[in-house]
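Contributing new records

If you add data, match the layout below exactly. Sequence lines come first and carry their own label; structure lines follow with theirs. Keep one chain per record. Anything else will be rejected by the validation script.
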Amino acid sequence: MADGYSKNIKRIQSANNDEKNMLNVVLLSEYRRRYALESLGTRIKPVVMFKSQKIDDSNDAEEKFNKLIKNLSVSSVINFIKSQRRIASKGDSNDEIQTLELAYKYYEENKDRLSEIISDIKREFSPNRIINANDTDRSAMLERGQYEALNSLESPDNLYRVVFAVAKLTEGWDVLNLYDIVRISDPVKTSGTKTQTNSEAQLIGRGARYNPFKLKGKASYKRRFSDYNIPSLLTETLHYHTINEPQYLKNLISSLDDMDLPTEIDGKNPLIDIEVKPSFKRTKLYKEGKIYYNDVVDISDSFYDSLEKYGIDNKSDISINWINIIEEFVYSEGVEGDLSAQLHDIELKFDKRFWTKAFARNSFYHFKELKRFVPQLNSMEEFLGEKWLNIDGGRRFFIRVAAGVNQEDLNPKDKLGAIELYLKEVEHQIRRGYSSKRGTNEFTGYPIKEYITNYRKRVPKYDTKNAFLPQKVSNYDFIHESYVYKNSVLNRTEKQLVDRVLNLVQDLKVEYEDVYLIRMDENMHRESPKGEQLKLHQFQENPDNIYYSGFQPDFILLIVNDEYYIQVFIEPKGEDRYLGEKWKEDLLLYLNDNEDNLVIDEEINNTKIKGLKFYFLDDKQGTINQLEKMVMSIKD
């Protein structure tokens, strides 16, 4: 999610009854479809899932839904929208649900063709486009042709828009065009146990997988829009519609927190203007200066002829931390103390049928999809072979479990789950390792006045504290003349970095005339081709981890005098993300070790391009000291 390979997640919570929640999600889902077609020129089929705790409740909900759609009319929709607006107006204005309001406005602005739209809704959500997945007898679903349809909802030939299901369906069910999940209230107990909300959180996590819809004829496997504009809300966001019950919400947020899933309420969140200071615009540096990034060259498909080219080790034994088994054992046996000291490895033995099953349960490993990222692959059978997963090459498969868990305790479902977990890791590395381009040692300068611009951004309001933005994010004003922007949206680590760099400015100005710190926010060019140019790409000969997609360091420090033009890349980072993103730090430090090999076009004076170690909170790596020594040593 942090890297853009998933939908965003927002909660829509209300005190509505099930029927009103159903109508809201129908209006939103159909608006998604229409917005994609009418505004983006692309066809998507957004799927809605109604999730219940019991089969009887789910079947009752389906009956209510069919009755609701059958009785839908122009007047009922208009009156419903008015009533929902009245409810919102009685509370705090921030309680207005942003995405639903977009849908409401659409239907109001199209009153003259609302009768036609409602006819389409009745067709799109008719009983023959609903899958009831509550049959305990699989053969009943097979007879209706719904079992296959349930697992092919992304197909253009599949017309189903709605799924009614209980918790059992969520295990292994994976559909990319799921955009709305609606929790049907439990008439007996609405609060939901932690076990129930854990199951819901897992379903939300699976539903958040990105839908690679086509835009201008091209599919993408990564978010293409700013996190907070309209296309993102509609085509790149999963909405979870739920009851507004305090204890249930507390349990749900706790479950999402345990999974590190960043979510927020879908409410009003005004855009903040981020402006370049007029004083900086008047400087010679702004008018004539440049910021430098390295060029890229094309990578032919023939390059990706093995998993090693994606930075994946396919020779060593496989080792997986099988957390499900560990947790189950700990909770049931009451193990206390240091859990890591009570673990051991078990070697798993299984035939190829397990791998085939695991491939079938993850749409990334359907051949047509995998072929997009592994162009040299000829078959799924080959993918198990020597150049790829190398399953028959003597590799052994171990899972780490709690003491007391033995080979005989593992059932086929556990073994399949371990393979699926491993394949998730491989999928992530393949997605990150595949690129049509790679970096070079040649750097091009981009005019500051064209690329450092005003932009707008929202302050995220994540309600899960352990997600990829674990620190509170706020909008800060900056008076210091060396900070290029009037204000910036930063987390605690970023703000601390800025303050410490600005504290160093006075010392640097003893030797250098101009010192300016620039926040390189991806929002500046998120929807512009310019943004793709402002990335630093790997150009090491044999990097430990291959990530050719590149990244944009969060800050650039420019230090200039008559003799030198120094650009320093700076990247603040949470320590918990260090190992997963160490490749970025390796690239930054590689700049320093190979500065004699950098080819810089149109050199301004004596141009130097440098990189620093990651900046951790409280400067635990001594990054600021490294910066000072680096800059002063250049002068010497």
